[in-house]
Amino acid sequence: MFGQIYYHGLIRKYVILVGTLFNDIYIRRTDSAGDVSALVKVPITFSPKDKMLARVLQDPNIDTKAAVVLPMISFEIGNMVYDGARKLNTIGRTVIKSDETGKFKYQYNPVPYNFDFKVYIYSKNAEDGTKIVEQILPFFTPDWTTTVNLISETEQTVDIPIILNRINYNDNYDDDFLKRRAIVWELDLTLKGYLFGPIKKSAIIKFINVNFYIPNNVADGYLANAVGNTAISEKITIQPGLDANGNAVSYYGANTADITSATLPYTEIEEDDNWGYIVKIYDTEDLL
Q: Which pTM value belongs to this model?
């Protein structure tokens, strides 16, 4: 039905954008004297919560290399919902110069969609979790806006707000002692993004044909004769319009004129009940 093959990778870019927000988080661990004993970078991965918990809890011996080292962060994409409140004019478009001579590229306004994301913070003790959360929450008030180059070909740079809707906390401390403890913070985010259509090309408009009408606004009720009458009531010059001979066209009013005695090319303005006055241009061929 649609018949066009294109792919901008926008959903993938939104996933990368959310992951980039949380990929540079560190926590400091201190000893009893208050000195820094370790600086730990918190790893992040794109993975659902259930899968990550299965990896975390698969081995009760947290010293084995098979177990996932905590703390860590995972995130996943959820629902996508159309946002009519941000709808733009459908026929509006962005136009840029094309590499092809005599053509330009254009793209119609995008369609707004809200993308739901879940971000999970895992830690084996409460303090590690709070150290991570406190580095994130102050930046959401409740949204964080970042500028993203979505379509490089048409230079579509858009401000994308990411809204923090709510925060959930879960601690499985009530399980038996054989299971590994995992404290999970869950951040519910909404990314207000856009989906763009295909990029099209079109030729540059170099010529137009216009019917030009002069309104009936002359005080004495007529337009003066262009031949033998120096009292010209109205004169309109359109630039850079040229006549068939390459000369600039000047429009002179005339309601009674002997065209054969006029200097060619000759322009006559004829009164019309609907439009006021209609411009007529006479050249040599018109009189033969």
A: 0.65
